[in-house]
Amino acid sequence: GVLRIQHGFVGYSGTSQVVFTFLLIPCCLTVDFRAPPIFPNTPFVWAWNAPTEHCAEKFNVPLDLSLFSLVGSPRVNVTGQNITLFYTDRLGYYPYIETKTGKLVNGGLPQSGSLTAHLDKAKADISYYIPTDHVGLAVIDWEEWRPTWVRNWQAKDIYRQQSILLVQQENVQLNVTEATKTAKTMFEKAGKSFMLETLKLGKSLKPNHLWGFYLFPDCYNHYKGSDYNGSCYDIEKRRNDGLNWLWKEST
């Protein structure tokens, strides 16, 4: 590429400007745009989140976890850890459909849930599980539905079907194509609001924690085959780009 300087440097000749420009390029290329590590002099953080306390309690076999900078347990009664996972029943009123029974929980669909009530409850839940704001990780583990409409395949297709049915019930004059388009818009808008506002709330209450969602981003390339190389499909890259709002808000 060609680097163009719009305005000359006062007091410098053309040759000096060219020399200065080429000296500047290596400096720009070495700038580190990554966020600093959460622990000083620890560029890579090992985290442990398994209920291994049972080993000591039941079998008197303590485990040495000194290798890990972050240690936590997913048990519901354990609080104040430096790594906290918020499952579907531990953070607000997350709307979802029970896989086995089909029961609608908290409205079932994000567009049928109450975001206000959810955030009120989430505020109390965050204060309970993270009583003090020390440095740590806060991971929201919501796996029932995905905010990108097309990614709700297989068992998650029920969220698309129920969303379409909801639109058809409220607008009987719409055909399937029209109802699907409307349902997609409503679902993605509501799903985005639930995820985005929950992140904002967590960051405002516990700013020293790093907040994000489990399994985001994902390439959905989990298949077994001799030709598997771990690469991300182009279509999934584009879909991940569509979640830029989530990456910007995550820490």
Automatic annotation (TrEMBL):
Catalytic activity of the protein: Random hydrolysis of (1->4)-linkages between N-acetyl-beta-D-glucosamine and D-glucuronate residues in hyaluronate
Entry's EC annotation: 3.2.1.35
Molecular functions per Gene Ontology: hyalurononglucosaminidase activity
Keyword Disulfide bond: yes
GO biological process terms, semicolon-separated: carbohydrate metabolic process
UniProt xrefs under Pfam families: Glyco_hydro_56
Keywords: Disulfide bond, Glycosidase, Hydrolase
Entries under PANTHER family matching the protein: HYALURONIDASE, HYALURONIDASE PH-20
Assigned protein family: Belongs to the glycosyl hydrolase 56 family.
Protein name: Hyaluronidase
Organism: Equus caballus (Horse)
